[in-house]
Specification:
membrane; 3 domains; mainly alpha; acyltransferase; transmembrane
């Protein structure tokens, strides 16, 4: 499972080192040659998508390592976009804000956030016991996911396409796949948002630990989708939903575009990691996600948000089962 780790580490390190290009562009070129700056920046972002994608597509990495590399690529893309937007486009009139040091960039690359700031709230000291505990829990969740896939998925589907397929087999596959998918989603959610991000936050003395909220108590679909992963939802709201809503004045269009792009990103990671394209997640985000978000959260008057009855919260627990 980890035999490909050195190669994936090299790819990840190369992507992180490449962020010196937008840092240099913003610091030394943005004010002097705007057209050149935008052209080079657009080319850089395109290469940051194409080159790692080509490398991963032509490499036979394990499933876990492929997922890690694809997620790292998307993470770097989101961070670079935030870095350039916050410094160049949003704070273009402030010379002081343009003086982003190399330390600011490096800290941002490793900080558990996707929105760039020159300074973040910091704790006074590092609790190394907590750091070790978080990373050990993360490793534990990885092994649990690996064991689950190896024991149930590989064994149960080894004969797929060979043995006769009937209604009993279909029902059994749906039940097994649903339970496994739900378990893997919760393990991944806990490992990433609770263990991995908190471990890095503690090690970097990053004080804002609000990586998720109580999505399981949500009574509104809009709040459910935001609370599940606040790190990503904050980025989507800041750089997709809010700008589109401000330009168009239509919440439904902003929500649709946000769900569509989020679906494309999820589908890209899935296709790059597994080696095949099946646009289930894209349809899922546009169908179940955007559809229910629009139906329950954006009434015709566009003012008051509808609240789901308490007994329908079961839908929020069924959704991970449905996603699988």
């Amino acid at each position: 499972m980890f035999s490909d780790a050195p190669s994936v580490f090299v790819i990840s390190a190369a992507m992180q080192v490449s962020t010196l290009i937008p840092w240099y562009l913003v610091k030394f070129l943005a004010n002097k040659h705007k057209i050149v700056f935008l052209s080079i920046y657009a080319t850089y972002m395109l290469m940051l998508i194409v080159i790692p994608c080509w490398k991963l597509s032509n490499s036979e990495f394990s499933l876990f390592m492929s997922f890690a590399a694809a997620m790292e690529q998307v993470r770097i893309l989101m961070k670079v976009h935030s870095f350039v937007i916050e410094i160049y486009f949003k704070q273009i009139d402030s010379k002081k804000d343009k003086n982003a040091t190399l330390y600011n960039l490096v800290y941002f690359l490793f900080a558990p956030t996707l929105i760039y700031r020159h300074n973040y709230p910091r704790t006074k000291k590092i609790n190394w016991r907590a750091v070790i505990s978080y990373f050990l829990q993360f490793i534990g969740t990885i092994f649990c996911m690996f064991a689950t896939i190896r024991r149930f998925v590989a064994n149960n589907y080894a004969s797929s396409g060979i043995e006769p397929f009937n209604a009993k087999t279909l029902l059994s596959s749906l039940l097994v796949t649903g339970c496994l998918g739900m378990s893997l989603m919760f393990l991944g959610w806990y490992g990433l948002l609770q263990c991995w991000l908190n471990g890095w936050a503690e090690m970097l003395r990053f004080a804002d630990r609000m990586f998720y909220d109580e999505w399981w108590t949500s009574s509104q679909f809009s709040k459910y989708f935001r609370k599940w992963n606040l790190v990503v939802s904050d980025w989507l709201h800041t750089y997709l939903y809010q700008p589109i809503n401000d330009m168009s004045g239509k919440r439904w269009l902003a929500a649709l575009a946000t769900f569509a792009i989020s679906g494309v990103a999820h589908e890209y990671i899935m296709a790059l990691a597994t080696g095949f394209f099946f646009p289930f997640l894209f349809i899922e985000f546009l169908g179940f996600g955007a559809g229910l978000f629009w139906f329950f959260s954006i009434p015709s008057n566009g003012i008051q948000e509808l609240t789901v009855h308490h007994h329908t919260r079961i839908i929020f627990w069924i959704k991970p089962f449905h996603d699988s």
